């Protein structure tokens, strides 16, 4: 399965700078599966995620064929890369892709798919599997350090009063943050706060702006009035209100999705926004969060290549041991840190540059020692 | 006069040709650019930078420079003729692609029609000052360096210098250079040139004329030149910073053929200085400043301090002659991209990838003001050394600094910095308290002693007084890369080398007799200029935060 002929090229390029113990494998494309490959590479180079997944693999490697699921297939794949004798090469994530297609008909066709949708599906699927396993093993304490009860109050109370206790899996620990949606009724001044969990933040983008600015807009105060009033429980009527989003609990790994695919009503279809949105290599959440001194560091970018939403290609940029790599399906190349700026987008509407940062992965530097 | 404003901002809907400030209107006076179609292959690789050069009258009996002979009148005349051809000629011949650009604009014929009027000032001044005395804009784009006349309406440059092997990225001008070599150019390949600006103007070929070449083919350092600077009051010593975190000191005209072998850098995380082993070497000194790129450097006006900012997010201020770190601090987050000294050397502006414009105090050795207003990275900052507070009552206590900043959000922002804002939290002591002891009631940021020679951690958002911009103006349709504040104008440049000259209130009227007629009426009706009292950027809330803190 491991083919690896391009390996020597990358090893030569890196020379003695080749990160010790690290593996760089391209992923074969099975007909428009670049959306999957690009996300898998970003997740592989998300060290806390990879470590947890390999740990999971070590604990569950004797699972039979019958119990195969997306999680076990992914763990298998990561292990295959991680334990490879070769440092570089190409791997065909065949079993994983087949499993995903089996699980979700959306990804069954050979059409171009949205990498963000896939990431969402994948993380939720992993969480579902882990939660199920945690609930099954409940009552036998000590066997699982992988889950624990939610520490702070009710999160996601929409569970219809079902007795299902929310568990926090290692996927949650990696990616989950909590948003607080605060609404202040302008008549009675009552503040209603509603918590929501998230695995990623989807932000609207503007031409010639920064991620900092997009996040600021995301959490900026919005007035609900006219057609869009707020039903205040205290006033028992529709009232004008002010709404803002705050981050109550910042995630360990912050995933930011840039809303580059926008539905244009006049056109009756989606259009790709090629806006130039600069993303810094380090980031703080600033006003969005109470204590904003935690610094995030960029470690992966999923890049959409192409001018439209229904076609194109995905590649990824990943950081490993302070070196950056561009991974395009089978091919892995080193790139200079400064070349990341070629993926910011276009300052003007019509441009030949179609490679645009689409999903950004930041890791909290304080979260890892 | 057909409205020049329409031709001034072609294909840029929503861009206004003026902006308001408390002291009056700044009006778009001229635009400068480079020949179109020249850039595409190198597009995005290099960012245009801007240098404003004031070329003085040529001093008598200069040995080194130009084709000057003691029997002046003849030579002088021919130089003048040549220059005049150059100024006009850009529309008719020469300069490679220059023609193409002016053809594209409908301005061509109109400018030709107006020619007598528009070329009058520059033409006549050129004729009167045949030694090329004047104000020039020097800017790079793609593989070329361009020189434009600051005070002419002509959009096209007077001269284009093409570099065959690499792109010019940075440049600096020394207005008091004694021997004629006053223009310093740094390239992507690491190569550096010094030339005489006057000589370039007198020879209108596409070549660099009479250049001295340093770090040839990157023999000493082959990483990108990021910034070049003449060291004030030294006559001919200059500094070049590189993308690998090193900077080098050179002596002009010193033959650098000897290979300057500096020792290997032992610890790339530590600042180190190495002097060349041989006196024949040029560069003479290497400073290893930081890991990652040095993005910008700036000397204090007295030449005592050198400020650097870089990829690692640190501002470092060095005592230049002692070769020691004096003070410095970290950005809120991300790389720092630009820095600039106040005219009195008391403050340094820094801007970068945290979208902030911050003010560093040399006296307190920390950040004393935090400017939020840009929606993207801050790429250029500059103090306004020609600004004087309009309501100054004679006392200096309330002195106001004015400064400008530009960003990748295409905006130009102007800011006022009042002494109260920055001084109060620093000097505040509760009544009855000892003036020498801190009260303990306010934040550690203000109480902390900042020892000499150390770097400060990032400022915390709560601790620093916030500033709001006085003026927010979308100046270009593209991300901006630099701003220069001259006596008459604010000059902005975009990353792709488009320049706009915004005349200060009262200034533009002299050369443009009827500016109000010129500004299209639609632009006036759509006026949504954000000014301090009605600013959309939450100006009042930021001010409030600051004042709450002050009362604390």
Automatic annotation (TrEMBL), chain A:
Catalytic activity from the UniProt record: Thiol-dependent hydrolysis of ester, thioester, amide, peptide and isopeptide bonds formed by the C-terminal Gly of ubiquitin (a 76-residue protein attached to proteins as an intracellular targeting signal)
Q: What's a Gene Ontology MF term here?
A: cysteine-type deubiquitinase activity
Keywords of the record: Hydrolase, Lipoprotein, Myristate, Nucleus, Protease, Ubl conjugation pathway
Please state every residue range assigned to the domain named USP.
25-365
Which E.C. number(s) belong to this protein? 3.4.19.12
Do you know which CDD domains this protein is assigned to?
Peptidase_C19G
GO CC annotation:
cytosol; nucleus
Any matching Pfam family: UCH
Segments crossing the lipid bilayer: none
Q: Name one GO biological process term.
A: protein deubiquitination
InterPro entries attached to this UniProt entry: Papain-like_cys_pep_sf, Peptidase_C19, Peptidase_C19_UCH, USP, USP_CS
| Family, similarity comment | Belongs to the peptidase C19 family.
Name assigned to this protein: ubiquitinyl hydrolase 1
Automatic annotation (TrEMBL), chain B:
Q: What PROSITE patterns does the database record attribute to this sequence?
A: WD_REPEATS_2
Q: Which windows of the sequence hold WD repeats?
A: 329-370
Database matches in InterPro entries: WD40/YVTN_repeat-like_dom_sf, WD40_repeat_dom_sf, WD40_rpt, WD_repeat_creC_regulators
Entry keyword set: Repeat, WD repeat
| Superkingdom of origin | Eukaryota
Repeat among the record's keywords?
Answer: yes
Signal peptide start-end: none
Pfam family of the protein (one): WD40
Question: Know the name of this protein?
Answer: Dystrophia myotonica WD repeat-containing protein
